[in-house]
């Protein structure tokens, strides 16, 4: 199913859901109008479930969204339904394949009966509702499967991304950056980094889709906070660096998207325009009533380079700010490993080689060494094929050898999924002193690794 077709199907589904709830509120359940509305609604669910395993939507501010799409023109049409969801403190709703018509009735009944909670305890096996802050509880439940945890984290990640996208876009219109919202997003990322690093980095390895600017800002913020935490900085400082990471490319958002994502070779004039994003971004931040000094510095300095020979040209600065040096590493790393309009993602071992060559020119050598010592060449969550032909996910880095992490193996050399995964340490040697296994290569989650990722996590997290 084409993405635009799915967009309209989900949009119409939400309208139908709102209409059916109105019928439920006005008539008895046995009324012919209610029965017909339920049947038509259920049919729409069945149609969409032919193409996907899950349907979800949520509320940001006053707007409804699903996936990457915000339904601005739908808000007024279903404002009463949105009001009900907000009164019931519901930020998101998820419907899973296997949904029964009786579950739909129960869900609508519970929405109508305000004294009763809408939860899985009420025979809603294929419907989940909640608040974004409650995702942490789902992630921490031992009984919840790894796939469900990734799905929950993905929903939280997408909601953070959506808030960031809305905030940064609106800032260009109002010249007023909502730093409190960005600080809230950074605090959520900090919590995930501390308590769910494996899940978070697994998700980051999958987020390589081409709508690049905002995802890149979110990834840079996460990687920068990761570095800041390694350095032992306080939570407050880590979060401030996270906000600076979110805002580092705000100048690019003001430049035409067509130019930023151009697949053909750009001219010198176009390149100079792109380079101007550092000055443009710092001006946007400086003009905001909620001026953030560190974000201003990072926006201006993150392309200055460790040797100060980058851009923009400066005469009297003697060194980059620590946060700028951190964001510079995260910025280049994520740019190289991500899918762009003009190229596919670069293999991670090649990313490592390039960044090592630029040590002491682009990057602070100490910070770069620390970055890779803790991240590894293949970060936690990377899908890899071993020289034994087994397939698994990197589980934990080995500071002793950044090329030999611990890997959780999910697939046999024949490509069959194991009944139970096994964790192996690539530092292990056989009786003759030879390493038992090594990583052959990373599997691109959007290429040859797509089958494995879809089986392990479901298609919803790919992007």
Characterize this entry briefly.
This protein is α+β, with helices and mostly antiparallel strands and 463 residues long. It has helices at residues 3-26, 32-49, 79-87, 101-112, 135-140, 146-174, 179-195, 197-206, 212-230, 235-247, 250-254, 257-260, 268-275, 277-287, 293-301, 322-337, 348-357, 365-375, 450-457, and strands spanning 54-60, 63-66, 69-70, 92-96, 127-130, 383-386, 391-396, 406-411, 417-425, 439-442. It has three domains: 3-130, no CATH class; 146-375, Orthogonal Bundle (Hypothetical protein af1432); 383-461, no CATH class.
Give an overview in words.
This protein has three domains: 3-130, no CATH class; 146-375, Orthogonal Bundle (Hypothetical protein af1432), CATH 1.10.3210; 383-461, no CATH class. Helix 7 packs across helix 8, helix 9 (212-230) crosses helix 16 (322-337) and helix 14 (277-287) runs antiparallel to helix 15 (293-301). The model has no long low-confidence stretch (mean pLDDT 84). It is 52% helix and 11% strand. The longest helix is centred in the middle third of the chain and has 29 residues, at 146-174. The protein has 19 helices and ten strands. The chain is globular and about 75 Å long. Strand 6 (383-386) and strand 7 form a beta hairpin. The protein has a five-stranded antiparallel β-sheet, with helices on both faces. A five-stranded antiparallel β-sheet has the order 9-8-7-6-10, covered by helices on one side. With 463 residues, the chain is α+β, with helices and mostly antiparallel strands.
